[in-house]
Structures are given as C-alpha cells and as structure tokens.
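Q: Is it fine to ask for two folds in a single conversation?
A: Yes, each is treated on its own. Send the first.
Q: Here.
A: Result:
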Amino acid sequence: MSAPRILWRAFQEVRLKGYAYIWANLAFVALCLPVFTAPAALSALFRVSYEAQTSPSTADLALFWQNFKANIGRGVVWGVAHGVFAFINFSNLISYANADDPLWSALRFVWIGSAFVWFGVVLYTWPLYYSMAQPNLWISTRNALVMVLQNPLSTLMILIVLGMISVLSTLLVATWLLLTFGIIAAVGTAAVLWHVGQPDIIPELTEG
C-alpha cells in the first residue's frame, strides 16, 4: 500500500464530502455514550465512510442508523473481544513499564507490537466487512490482521498520522465531536479500498 496516497485520498474525501462525515461523526459520538453501543456505532460510521467513497448518494444518516441497528448484536461480541484484548495488553504495558529485566523488556516489545497490530485490525475490519460479497465479521477481522501483517510500514505510517490528528483534536476538543472519528474512518476505508484493488474508485480524487 502507498500510505501517503491513501492519506491524501482520505483527506480529500473528507474535504469534498464533509457533510456526510460530520453528521456520521456526531451520531457516532452520541451513540458511544452508553458504551455498549459503541462497536455498532463504529460499524455504522465505517459504513457511511465506505458508501461515501463508493456510492456517495447513499451516504447519509439513514444508512448510519440502518447499520447501527443491524450490527448491535455482532458489534457487542466483537467489541467485548477487542476490549478484553486491549485491557490485558495495555495493563501489562503499564504494570511492567519500569521493569528492567531483559525478559520484561522483550515482553514490552511484544506488547507494543501487539498494540500496533490491534489498532490496525480495528481500523481495517469494518471496511473489509463491507467490501465482502457475503459479509462475515470473523473473516473480515482475520483479513484485517493479514492486511496489517502484509503492510506493516504503511500501516505504521497511517497510525502515526492518525495519532498526530488525535493529539491535535485533544487540543481542539470540538474536533472530536465534529470530524476526528470521521477522518479515521475515511483513512481506514481508503486503505482497504486500495488494498482490495480499487485505488481509483473516486475519479475526482485522482485528477491532477
């Protein structure tokens, strides 16, 4: 994958279709408040992003709500699995942050690598799910893992840029409410479309 081109395409996508991302971002934040609905809200956010980059006329709040309701059940299971993994991994990192033993140093390296892979899997799973002829969340999660392992440097660059955006959004808190999560979804979707062989699916973003 070409991380710079993916990021550029995603940013252009948000610039050109910002209204869809802003409304989806607002709905996502609101539906994250009960916590257990957050995974389904994430799936709906990525659905709007996927449609915005493939069939823009259908990317609206009605689509968001439709996919939110459809993915409540599977979203909870997926979210709990990811939550358990993240809790264990980051708890280990925090608990043994100051351990000097070579064994713990090696384990910290493993845990940091696992965190990187985990972030990548979360970023790619739902766009892969929506790109499947017969969507299957388990298979899309597995494929997201393969995608991260096949493209570690591009994924790392993408995550670093998203991390920088997150830091800037923390300084400008309203950005989280209006756009940040939409940008993240746009980047994940653009990366998946590139990976599955559709880098030029949006003609207006390839001109010039």
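Q: Second one now.
A: Result:
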Amino acid sequence: MKRTNRIDVVVLVDPVGGITHDQAREVVRAVLKYNNDESRPLSRLTLTGQETTTTQWPDLLPFLDWARIIRQGDGLRIFGNLIGMTPETARVIAELKVRMYGEWFGPSLDEVGVQAMVNQGTAYDEATAMLAGIKTALATGALIGLEFQVNRQNISYVEDFLRLCQELGIEGHLEMQETQFSKPRNLAVAKMYRQSLPPKEQLRRICEIVAAQADVSPDNLVSPFFTCGSQDGACNYFYRGLFIRPNGRGGLRQTVCLSELTVIDDNFKPSWAQIGHSLRNPVLALRNIAQEQMEGGCRTCSVWSQCLGGCRAMAYLASGSRFAPDPNCWK
C-alpha cells in the first residue's frame, strides 16, 4: 500500500451529535482491515468537537477503554472546550493515558482570559464554563495541553498564551484560523475568512516565537501551526486521516478534514471497500500531489518536502482551487 493511501489517523468529529459506541468501533475496525495490518496500531485516534463538547459524549469512557486495548502508545486524543468536565471523568481519562487538550484563545487562565474570550465573541457564561473545565483537568493531571486558534483579532495574545503553557508544563498548540463554509461554497464567506487572517508580518513574529522555543531558525520552520514537518507533510491529519462525523439521520458522514463543504460520503458505511473508494475523491487525491502541480510560491518553496502545501482542505475552501497555497502560510 502506498504510504499516502494508508489511513493512520482516525478523527471522530462531534461524536456527541449522534455517533454510537458500536459505530465508532466499526470505523476503527474497518480502517485496520483496510490497512491490511490489524497488528499495527493507528498513530492517532482522535475525538474532537466543532459544534459540541466532546467530553459529553455518553459513550466516551467505554469507547476510550476499548480503544486503549486495540492500540498502543499515546495516540488516543481528545480535543474540545471541556465544558462540564468533572473530576471523576478527568481522573479516568488520565488513568487511561488519553491525551486531552482544551480550547482557550486568551492570554491567561483568569478573568482577564475570560474577557479576552468574550471580546472574541464567546458568551461570558460559556467562557467561564470552559475555564472551569480546564482548571478541573489541570488539577487532576488530565490536561496535556491547550489549543489556540490564531486570527487577526487575537494574535496579540499568542505570546502570553505560549508563555502560560510553558509555566504550567503543558503543551501550547497554535491552530490555523478555520472557518465553517456552507454548502455550496460561499464566496462572500471565503472573502471574510481571508480578511480574518493575520498579516504576514504578524505571522512572522509568531514564527519567531515558536522557532525560539523549538531552538530552530524561523526560516527553517515548516509552520507555526504544526508541531511536525515530515514525510507526511505539515498537516498529517489531512495526509493520513479519515474524518467521520454524524450525518444527523443516525448514520455517518465522511468529510475532508473538518469541513462540512467537502463531504465525501453522506452515508458512510464502515468497510474497507468504502474507504478505498473514498480516497479517489479529487481533494484527497492531493495526497499524492507533486510540487510542480502547485500554484504560487509553493512551486519553488524550499520546505515543500516537509510541508506539502500545508492544509489542502482549507486552501481549497478559501480559494476554490485544489492547487492553491495554504492561506495561513506565513511565507
């Protein structure tokens, strides 16, 4: 099997919205069968929330316990806003050695941070609930890190956020600015998205901060938004991932990355045959893209072999071209 056709990352998106324990297990089993090597574990099995709180999924703990048995290493991960996190749930997650990341787009874990969240459009009650969940996870040792989605509005908080994470001894992850495009693709929303991106000179400053922490030159940094640059590209979720979410009718939906626009299969049935068929989607075919096929600066970029164009899904959503550079590229 070609490296870029193997599924090494499974992402269950908004499972609380309607994915059952049995469906989640079927997806994982289908991927292992598709890879034709059930003895080799996935590198990541991730649960994330885009519109819901991941840790409120009723089947969360039973599924994590099952998943721990069928894989090894630190690949079990939870991402979300941690609203409603209880000490009991946090302790079990820590005991299962699941890597749990909270969301926070502020400079500190206090009232100043809450106000920063409010200034970005989060309701005050929601922000305080997010903070309470983060503090509960911290107190039990379950919190591995925090994620910060960078945009033009909050970029001034980034340096303090990264310093905060260092002081707490947790991982500080910067996410590229994302957007929820509707179907069909809305050009006005795409324009608004591009306008929300930080100026390149501000992204350069972020790169310098991240590079200093990693003890590398900013010019050799693949991206400030990813912790790795490897044979799988800057975004290994795209190049090796299978994204599954509920379809609202009791079934499953497969998408490219986290986008609702790039739906591959609105009635996904977990099977190795259907996975193989879905990988022929035009956007997913970019897993095998050549540098000369790209547009703009990607064609001559010195870190292409590590980056592979960044987030191909977001590039497509923002521009309409499958070969456009990642709009979040700091170069």
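Q: Anything structural to flag on that second result?
A: Two points. The beta strands are 9-13, 44-48, 76-80, 99-103, 143-149, 171-175, 241-246, 252-255, 263-265. The mean pLDDT is 85.
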